[in-house]
Write a structure and sequence with these properties.
Layout lengths: L3 H18 L6 H18 L7 H26 L5 H12 L2 H13 L2 H11 L5 H8 L3 H20 L1
Helix pairs in contact: 1-2, 1-3, 2-3, 5-6, 6-8, 7-8
């Protein structure tokens, strides 16, 4: 087969035609580069015994571009970037933590003193189980029991 530069020059109109037929209007340079890469891959994988290279290259390039479009659509569907107003509102909500403290205090009333310690150390101080055990001079197992009891009670409160 001829050099890739010659091949790229020869098939440049085909790549542009495929891009146009897929109604691509953004990221044209990126799709053109993907088309060139696909052309090179097609030239490496082509088996002359199975048919015409032009047909193979067209199908291969078009397939790669469609796969990229599909990947971009899935990514756009999964990834979500909220508007600026959302971030401003979220920052305002974090500033007013009085509601969170109220909820925490109401939950503490429903728990035993040790379970309440676990909840406070977890939510306010962000301590690990081992750190809590050291601070309270108890075993790690005891703190895990506080945690289990607190979780059980809190789940019961949420269900009711």
């Amino acid at each position: 087969m001829e050099s890739f530069e010659q091949l790229a020059e020869q098939y440049q109109p085909m790549i542009h035609k495929i891009i146009h037929s897929l109604h691509l209007y953004t990221d044209l340079e990126e799709f053109y580069q993907l088309g060139l890469i696909s052309l090179w891959e097609a030239s490496q994988r082509f088996n002359p015994e199975k048919g015409n290279f032009t047909n193979y290259a067209y199908s291969y390039i078009r397939g790669k571009l469609l796969m990229e479009l599909n990947k971009m659509a899935k990514s756009k569907e999964r990834d979500f970037c909220p508007e600026e107003e959302f971030w401003e509102m979220a920052a305002d909500c974090r500033k007013d933590s009085s509601l969170e403290r109220e909820i925490l205090l109401s939950c503490l009333e429903m728990l035993t003193p040790n379970q309440g310690k676990w909840l406070q150390y977890t939510l306010i101080n962000d301590l690990s189980v081992r750190e809590m055990a050291e601070r309270e001079s108890v075993t790690v197992s005891a703190v895990k029991q506080w945690r289990e009891g607190a979780r059980r009670r809190l789940k019961g409160l949420i269900r009711n």
